[in-house]
Design goal:
Elements (H helix, E strand, L loop, with lengths): L12 H6 L2 H38 L13 H14 L8 H12 L24 H6 L13 E8 L4 E7 L5 H18 L8 H28 L7 H7 L9 H19 L10 H5 L4 H33 L10 H21 L6 H11 L5 H17 L4 H16 L6 H5 L8 H5 L2 H4 L8 H7 L2 H21 L4 H25 L6 H11 L8 H14 L4 H16 L10 H10 L12 H13 L7 H14 L5 H17 L36 H5 L5 H11 L12 H4 L3 H7 L30 H12 L10 H8 L1
Antiparallel strand pairs: 1-2
Length: about 800
């Protein structure tokens, strides 16, 4: 059936154009006038209605009369009272009286009930019933207040539904007044001035509050530890104490809560990362135990997240130095709170590298490694070093290295050198990088069914099947990380480290980061790709020749160069003579003062340059270095002298023909030139190690023992041989063992027991005649002559 079409058609655009503008304006005006008139009528009716209600309220309520219950006695009394109140009719004329009666019979304003809102000249409607007319009569208000009823559930009976009601209990006004009076009395009591506490009372009160808070923290923490899955909601209660508002104990309580939560998370956190559930997992039905575990994990992750956000906010408040509206914690206390927060973040960084939000902690900690506050910077650097040392897989280390590299580049290499020195703690070894992954982790091969059938009997096949099943279960239970993944992570980490190092070498050669870069290159040089060796050696030599480096930095350059050449660089045809010359030339810069600590680097360089490259080192070079090292041992501290003499001992064993330095009669061509900086051409074979005689009288017993050992030709057996505790240690280890960092000798040095000598004093040094001459000149009166320096000046000019 088709829809009915609207007969009223929409006027076309052409028709609308024909309509005059005046006609449209008139239509709009008429429409607006109608709306205004309708609104006025509505307002007028509402005003009348409000007036009628107001009149009805102001009128004195009269109970509704019942014609059946009217008693004649009361009616007669009322009529008598009305007659008495009425005016005397004797004073009125008959005409006036007649007029008043006629008026009384008519409906007028005087006889109209004001409580009715019905108009005066209302027309009588047709078919109006008596009941409707009765309903329109206004009810008078009752004198007694109506009781408020409560409607209950109805009861259904044979007769029908019976409604049930009950009176609402009336609150006694007297009781309300009493309660109000009690509240007013309490307010009056509170308004009394509080007695000011003395300092001692204030401290006692604070100690009492603090003890209560400590007990509360301990109770919550012990409840969580006893059953974490059940009491996980108490973590929220404990975390809410981070917002402690009591100014007396706010700072202390917040610090205690930070440390308590940190220890709790370290204890109750599982050894795996909790991932969010998918929609399919949420919709599936699970057991109660699994549901309980899920709720525990969700609660733990959410509380851990909020806790980290609170710690971050504390650090930000300290950085921004902005006082909060609550004014509970002062600006001075912000630093203490920030230090505790940073310490907790460092602990979580090291303890929970596998758990959620570890990357967020790294992003918080790395900028603080470059903080102005030395204590916070050292704390963060130590935490990162500890993480590098204990990270076996390399996942956490890679995350930290990425953030540090980006931070250094973003700051245009203007950061603390300690940030790059943390790279030295990375656990990356040569074997882990060089070994083939197939040789390390060969997959276990099981026999096929055909092979078993050919070689094994039925019973043997049965046992073999059970054995293979057990081996598979053991492999799954082991769950060891794949070596391939570890090598991949280490390779990526090293790439980022070397990119950072090479950027600084290229762009910021005068940066304070250069020593840390050179030290890092010296450690990881054997892992650098061979393609970069030529360019890197050129850069290192340029840095040394520039003269802008300190002595320690130049030593790191030499160490890096020889580490490169001693590893994969053996295949390269590079002559490092310039590095030998530089080290030989700068050895005398070492002394017993500030540069004494650089002796350790020199010992490491000598080991790589001479001992490990013995086939590329000539005898003349070895003799020159042994002679210069013996001279150096005379003016350094005892631990440095021991390290240098131990190096000489190894060199004498490595190059046996160097024992000619112990023979006075041996002669060669030329004369020894100690001031020449070229070790190949200084003719060291024409000298002797006379320094060993002076070192035999050294105050340190170990130095004396080494000097005597070298003078005897460094024998491995006999009375002149060293003890195993000295001979088996390297030079660097001996340098560390006998260090004087604690300002004590190791072993203690014996006090010198020299005999008392008689010294001549005073005049006993002089002759008698000389004494008399001196006394005579001293007794003469001193005559002052004018000083004339010009004559001496003239003679000097001539």
């Amino acid at each position: 059936m088709k829809a009915r079409r609207n007969k009223k058609q929409i006027p076309s655009f052409r028709k609308l154009l024909k309509t005059s503008k005046v006609k449209l304006e008139n239509k709009l005006k008429n429409k607006q006038f109608k709306q205004q008139s309708t609104l006025k009528k509505y307002r007028k009716e509402q005003r009348k209605l409000r007036q009628a209600v107001k009149d009805a309220v102001s009128k004195k309520p009269i109970p509704l009369e019942d014609p059946k219950e009217k008693r004649p006695g009361k009616r007669i009394e009322r009529e008598e009272e009305e007659e008495e109140e009425a005016l005397p009719l004797d004073m009125m004329d008959e005409d006036d009286l007649q007029l008043m009666r006629e008026l009384g019979q008519r409906a007028s304003f005087l006889t109209r009930d004001l409580s009715s809102s019905e108009p005066v000249h209302a027309k009588k409607r047709k078919y109006e019933r008596v009941i409707d007319k009765y309903e329109k009569i206004p009810r008078t208000l009752q004198t007694a207040p109506e009781k408020e009823m409560i409607h209950l559930l109805p009861i259904k009976d044979k007769s029908g539904i019976i409604p049930q009601t009950r009176e609402k209990p009336v609150i006694d006004n007297n009781q309300d007044e009493e309660d109000q009076e009690e509240v007013e009395l309490e307010e009056e009591i509170v308004e009394d001035p509080i007695r000011e506490l003395t300092l001692e009372e204030h401290l006692i009160e604070r100690r009492k509050k603090l003890q209560e808070k400590k007990m509360h923290i301990a109770t919550l923490a012990s409840a969580i530890l006893s059953d974490p899955e059940t009491n996980i909601k108490k973590l929220k209660e404990l975390r809410s104490m981070l917002m402690e508002q009591d100014p007396d104990v706010a700072v202390t309580v917040r610090k205690l809560v930070i440390v308590s939560l940190m220890e709790l998370f370290k204890d109750i956190t599982p050894s795996y990362k909790i991932r969010p559930l998918t929609e399919a997992e949420k919709s599936t039905k699970i057991r109660k135990e699994t549901q309980k575990l899920r709720e525990f994990e969700e609660g733990l992750v959410s509380q851990y997240k909020f806790y980290l956000e609170n710690l971050e906010q504390m650090v930000k408040d300290w950085k921004q130095r902005k006082l909060k509206k609550s004014n509970v914690v002062s600006l001075k206390a912000y630093k203490g709170l920030a230090e505790v927060a940073v310490k907790s973040l460092c602990e979580l960084l090291v303890s929970l590298p596998h758990f959620n939000f570890h990357n967020n902690i790294i992003v918080l900690i790395v900028p603080l490694m470059n903080d102005v506050s030395k204590s916070i910077s050292e704390m963060c650097c130590e935490a990162v070093k500890k993480l590098f040392k204990q990270d076996k897989l390399g996942q956490a280390s890679l995350g930290v290295i990425k953030v540090i590299s980006g931070f250094v580049k973003g700051r245009n290499y203007e950061v603390r050198p300690e940030m790059l020195k943390t790279f030295l703690c990375l656990r990356i070894k040569e074997l882990e990088v060089k070994k083939d992954t197939e040789d390390i982790n060969k997959p276990k091969k099981f026999m096929t069914f055909k092979e078993k059938r050919k070689t094994l009997s039925r019973m043997q096949r049965k046992w073999k099947k059970a054995e293979e099943k057990l081996e598979r279960e053991l492999l799954e239970a082991e769950a060891s990380e794949s070596t391939e993944r570890k090598l991949k992570l280490h390779t990526e980490t090293l790439n980022i480290v070397f990119v950072t190092y090479f950027r600084i070498l290229k762009k910021a050669q005068r940066s304070p980061l250069l020593p840390a870069v050179l030290e890092g290159l010296a450690k990881f040089a054997h892992l650098i790709n061979v393609e970069f060796f030529d360019d890197l050696l050129v850069v290192l030599h340029t840095l040394i020749e520039s003269g802008d480096l300190s002595y320690r930095e130049s030593l790191h350059c030499v160490q890096t160069a020889f580490h490169i050449l001693s590893g994969q660089g053996d295949v390269l045809n590079i002559d490092p003579m310039k590095f030998y010359t530089h080290l030989y030339k700068t050895l005398f810069k070492l002394h017993a003062g500030a540069t004494n600590e650089d002796v350790e680097i020199v010992l490491q360089c000598l080991d790589v340059m001479l001992t490990k490259r013995r086939k590329q080192v000539s005898q003349q070079r070895a003799l020159a270095f042994i002679k210069r090292l013996c001279t150096l041992a005379l003016h350094v501290l005892p631990n440095s002298s021991i390290g240098i003499l131990a190096t000489n001992r190894i060199l004498m064993h490595t190059f046996p023909k160097t024992d000619l330095l112990l023979d006075n009669e041996s002669q060669g061509s030329g004369v020894f030139l100690p001031e020449l900086d070229e070790p190949e051409y200084c003719n060291a074979q024409n000298t002797a190690l006379w320094e060993l005689h002076a070192l035999q009288r050294h105050y340190h017993p170990i130095v004396r023992r080494f000097a005597a050992h070298l003078m005897a030709g460094a024998p491995s057996e006999g009375s002149a041989a060293l003890k195993p505790e000295l001979s088996r240690r390297s030079a660097a280890e001996l340098f560390e063992t006998y260090s004087m960092a604690a300002m004590t000798f190791n072993p203690p040095v014996e006090s010198s027991s020299s005999k008392r000598k008689v010294f001549l004093q005073g005049d006993s040094f002089l002759n008698e005649d000389l004494n008399q001459l001196i006394k005579r000149h001293c007794s003469e009166a001193a005559t002052h002559f004018p000083l004339d320096f010009t004559k001496y000046l003239k003679t000097s000019l001539r």
